[in-house]
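User: what does the whole thing look like in 3D?
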Amino acid sequence: MTQPDPSLDLTDQDLSLDDEAHLTQAGCAATRDLVFVAAERLFAVHGFQKVSVRDITAEAKVNLASINYHFGSKDALLLEIFTRRTAELNRARAKMLHEANAAHAGKPPVRAVLHALIAPPVRWMDPKGERLISVQFLIRARSEGTDQMRDILRTDVSHLRRFSDALLVACPQLTPEEVYWRLHFSLGLIHNNRFAEFDRLNTLSGGLTREDEVDLLIQRMVNFAEAGFLRA
Amino acid sequence: MTQPDPSLDLTDQDLSLDDEAHLTQAGCAATRDLVFVAAERLFAVHGFQKVSVRDITAEAKVNLASINYHFGSKDALLLEIFTRRTAELNRARAKMLHEANAAHAGKPPVRAVLHALIAPPVRWMDPKGERLISVQFLIRARSEGTDQMRDILRTDVSHLRRFSDALLVACPQLTPEEVYWRLHFSLGLIHNNRFAEFDRLNTLSGGLTREDEVDLLIQRMVNFAEAGFLRA
DNA sequence: GTCTATATCGAGATAGAC
DNA sequence: GTCTATCTCGATATAGAC
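Assistant: Here's the predicted 3D structure for the full assembly of 464 residues, as structure tokens:
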């Protein structure tokens, strides 16, 4: 077994194309990508364990043996989706934090740091975009992932380190302990953005809450998290 | 199929005894309760789908057929654990909110409402208590539950309604829409309290964060959420 | 009520033809 | 690369003896 690169921070792999953009010369998507897209969607909607390779190959309209041929196993397919999407997300976050650093002489305020942390995944939630399922997949991975994925999530914190470092600088009045906890709380806001939780919120609010206005939602989330950080 | 009572708010069922307290006259725990406790623990630690009835009966040291005899099916067992623990949790929350209402002439401040929402599940997380696995089970149910459990979670919001009502009263300066969102964010703090997330936080902080000091953790969480609510 | 043995099914993986 | 057919395993559930 080859070990996958544990760093999901900034990878060298090609992440530039949307899934559907990998086209064969004949104009139809390659089997491998059909499987990738179908699997991501089914996993995101129904959960990892409830979706079988048969479900995936049926959805992708490819042969049953395709998954093992192209990916080796169902778990390897899961891991590849996870690593690719995680790398994309962390790259977007790193880019925004980098820009915030550039705009504030290396010492961005709390709000800018939180915005770089929160905005990328919430932008993905836009129903008008094609990334809604990707972010649902990643949220699911946090609780339903394979052992390998869980180990990566637990131990690979390199992408978070630069955010915690920036927050430590931006909040000198807080103890480091307190900064780490508040970062944890802020991440909790993001991880709670599941379909089912939105549904419940809509039930409770009588339809008042619109999760499809992503820019407004980002503002609400950043406001909430920032207030938590600024508190003495 | 008999429909279980969808209201998990305040039920009439007996919730007064700890699991291990149901003892037969011979002094050994009844099979049914052995199964219940073992199943809750394994589900909480490993997830619902990854645990088989064989794992459970082996852990409980009872016969393989016990689950189907006493509960009907694996899913029915899951649902019973879920409904019992949810009812217990909501009862504790309702009691605290009731007390806050009594102490503040029916108009408790935001902090008291949030405390009633947050303190019960976080108290359960005390490693010195016996409820740590119960709260991990309930957190898992939010993403890994059966269709029936998910439906209950999505549609049964009666226990949340009294909290949103209290917050609407306590925050007249906010639009209802904003209040519902901030309640959603506050719940996100709670749902993020998984073993794996604590592990990651500990990795990131170099062991600075101690999740076993529950009273301190409750204060941190209430502080964070309250600041988010008080913001203009 | 409890246990052994088994029925039945669906899963992931693979062999081998094309 | 792709497909069909199949292997093998582990799951839930149940029948029937005690």
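In plain terms: Residues 52-54, 65, 67-68, 73-74 of chain B lie near DNA strand D (CB under 10 Å from a C1'). The longest helix of chain B spans residues 74-103.
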